[in-house]
Structure formats: structure tokens, C-alpha cells
Specification:
The protein is of the alpha/beta class. It has eleven helices and 14 strands.
Length: 390
């Protein structure tokens, strides 16, 4: 999703931001102030120290970030309208599902990364807002996949702004959608990768938790493949030891690592990871492919067959990710940084999801889907080829 080379470009010389992030030139310091996410939300700075309390109807409603004592204290914003509304719901006896299951990976998903919603990564002007959540819900999206943590100077506290995350999490839940938080490890040896996964696992606000946590496994850096594999397995084992909840593995498509570019990650440790992760999410971004793998169907279908064979599990649960984006062929962006999928290719991808027995599917990412592509996906998951996934 977000590494030194994208799942789509790993076969060539393209580098920089991954296929998941739209525009490698987005950089520069943020002024530190998070713009409101959604209409009517007002923020002012506050210090959050471990556990925040809100007095509601004479009682105490806990907003817990479950921070460790060693975690730094970062200036944050006071709750927005979404959080305020949830306080009232909880005070009236509302309850939210506490258990995490693989069901959140079933059906139609939508992807949102920091370059969509975080002011720190968008020069204070994120394009994603609650209109998008409304549209997702209206289109039948079941799960929002949210990049809620990052190892980057622009995310100094590990998680993205907690009140923005609270807005998105509660806003999605209020619209009937689950939220899976994902993180891209960089295989550092100082524990920061594990700390970010822990923060995602334990993030909670007003009874709302992320409905799942997924690990984006693609970062190369300057780390040789054997050492990368060792650190991946160690991180995965350590994180698994602290949670019994289902975990998602966002992985490079096996066709890419075995056929197109075997040098990307030789001897990927599938078998050592098979018992750790519960759902596999191959990044089958066919829009980068110029061979027969660029038709929207073959890349995903073959990658799923190879993935299950590598895992030694013919019934491994798979949620396929296609893309990048989707265009209708009318006034499309000229010379986009990342080639976009066509509507015909998306149709083929939907058939591949069904034929491969995938339990769910999505196209990366929401912001790069033109309206016609969003309508096409909604139709496929409602009454079309992907209607019976899961």
C-alpha cells in the first residue's frame, strides 16, 4: 500500500511512494493544526494524558487511548461533532460490537490512506470528508480500510491524529460500516513497528474499537530479503502473541514476486506466516501490467492460486485488492503518476474475485475512483458478479 515500491511498480524501476498513495511529491511540514474532518466540527488544542474523561449526564464516560506511560504526550484536538454525538448515544445505553471476526473482510471494501485524510500529509487540505463516508455507505461498502498509523516524521506519535481517527471510526460505525486499521512496517529493530501495531490494536474511544488490524507487508528499504523475512516473522509472531483477534496480511501478489520480479522478495516466508494471519489481501494492481496480467482478471486469479499453494492451504481466506483506481475513459486525468484501471478491467476483476473464491474485494483507493467506477463497484457488489462473495 505505502512503501518504497508499489505492488504495481515493483517489476520495474519505479520508486518513491507506493501505488497506494497518490502523488509522490506531497511533502513538507504541516503547521501542526488538523483541519476539521466533516461538516460543523470544531477543534481546539488540548493535551491528552493517558486517559481522558467526559462527564455525561452526571456520569463519567471514558475515552481511552490506552497509552503506555512511556508514550509521548502530543497536543490533540477536542472532540468533534461525531464524537459528541457518540457520547450521547453511549449515555443512552448504546453498545458497540466488541468482538473482532474475519467477517469484516467479507464483501465490499474501500481504502483510505493518510494522503487522503491526514492534514499532515496533504498540506492541511485533505480531500476526504464525511461526504465520502456517506457515499461509501450508500454504495454498500461494508468495511473501510484506514491507514491509521505510520512510521514517519509527520506522524511523530505513531498514530495519526486521534480525534480525526475517532471521527472516522465513529462516523463509519454510525453509517453501518466496519473499520480495519492498517500499518506499513519498515522492519526497524527498535520496536517502533510493534508499538504502532499495539496502538492500533488498543485504540478505543467511547466503546468503539477498530474492527480489525491488518499488516501491510511490502517495505524493502535497504534490507536484504533474508533479514526482511526474519524481521517480518518475528514481528508477526510477537504481535500474534498479544492478541487472539483475527489479523489481516496485505501482501504482494504472488505473480509479481514469482513471475514478474522474483528479486523483489525471494523465498517469502509464507509457511511461517500461515498460522499467524487469518485473512490474506493480495495487492493485485493490474493497471501497472502491460502483459496479459493487465486485463483485470488474470493477475488476481493466478495470484490467489499461487498464494494458497504457497501457504499449503487451499481454503485460505482471501480479500482481493485491485486497481489502481478506476476511470471511465471520458476526460481522464492526463499522465497520472499511477496508471488507472478501466471499467472493463474492473468488470473482469469482479469475475476473478468470484472465480477465485475470494471472500471480499476492493479497489485501491477510494479517492482515485471516478464516479462511474464507484457506481460500477456498487452494482457488482449489490447484484453483479461479486454479490455473493463471502
Amino acid at each position: 500500500m505505502n512503501g518504497s515500491a508499489s505492488a504495481g511498480s515493483a517489476g520495474g524501476a519505479v520508486s518513491g511512494r507506493s501505488a497506494g498513495s497518490a502523488g509522490g511529491a506531497v511533502s513538507g511540514p504541516s503547521d501542526g493544526s488538523a483541519a476539521p474532518l466533516g461538516r460543523g466540527a470544531e477543534y481546539r488544542r488540548a493535551a491528552l494524558v493517558g486517559l481522558a474523561g467526559l462527564v455525561v449526564l452526571g456520569g463519567l464516560v471514558a475515552v481511552s487511548w490506552r497509552r503506555s506511560e512511556a508514550s509521548p504526550v502530543l497536543p490533540l484536538k477536542v472532540r468533534s461533532a461525531e464524537v459528541t454525538r457518540a457520547v450521547g448515544d453511549l449515555a443512552e445505553g448504546g453498545r458497540w460490537p466488541a468482538s473482532r471476526t474475519v467477517d469484516v473482510y467479507r464483501g465490499y471494501g474501500a481504502w483510505v490512506d493518510v494522503f487522503d485524510f491526514s492534514p499532515a500529509y496533504t498540506r492541511g487540505n485533505p480531500p476526504f470528508d464525511f461526504d465520502d463516508l456517506d457515499e461509501m455507505a450508500a454504495d454498500g461498502v461494508r468495511t473501510v480500510y484506514l491507514q491509521a498509523a505510520r512510521l514517519d516524521d509527520r506522524t511523530p506519535d505513531g498514530l495519526e491524529d486521534r480525534w480525526l481517527l475517532a471521527d472516522l471510526l465513529i462516523g463509519a460505525h454510525e453509517r453501518g460500516m466496519a473499520v480495519v486499521a492498517w500499518y506499513l512496517p519498515k522492519w526497524v529493530a527498535d520496536g517502533r513497528d510493534l508499538e504502532r501495531l499495539r496502538l492500533l490494536d488498543e485504540f478505543e474511544v467511547l466503546g468503539h474499537r477498530f474492527d480489525g488490524v491488518a499488516v501491510d507487508i511490502e517495505w524493502q528499504g535497504e534490507i536484504p530479503a533474508p533479514e526482511r523475512s526474519s524481521r517480518l516473522v518475528s514481528l508477526s509472531q510477537t504481535f500474534r502473541a498479544r492478541t487472539d483477534d483475527p489479523l489481516g496480511a496485505i501482501v504482494m501478489p504472488a505473480v509479481l514476486t514469482e513471475v514478474i520480479n522474483p528479486n523483489f522478495w525471494p523465498a517469502f516466508p509464507y509457511r511461517r506466516l500461515a498460522s499467524i494471519y487469518d485473512v490474506w489481501l493480495p495487492m493485485s494492481y493490474w493497471s501497472f501490467r502491460t502483459s496479459s496480467y493487465g486485463d483485470g482478471y488474470s493477475y488476481h486469479e493466478e495470484s490467489v492460486r499461487r498464494l494458497r499453494a504457497n501457504l499449503g492451504d487451499p481454503d485460505a481466506l482471501v480479500h482481493g485488492i485491485g486497481g489502481i483506481g478506476g476511470v471511465d475513459g471520458i476526460n481522464d486525468p492526463q499522465n497520472p503518476r499511477e496508471p488507472r484501471a478501466t471499467l472493463d478491467e474492473i468488470d473482469a476483476f469482479m469475475r476473478a474475485l468470484a472465480d477465485s473464491g475470494s471472500i471480499g474485494g476492493s479497489v485501491y483507493d477510494w479517492q482515485t475512483l471516478e464516479p462511474a467506477a464507484r457506481r460500477s463497484l456498487a452494482a457488482h457488489f449489490s447484484t453483479g458478479a461479486a454479490a455473493d462473495l463471502g
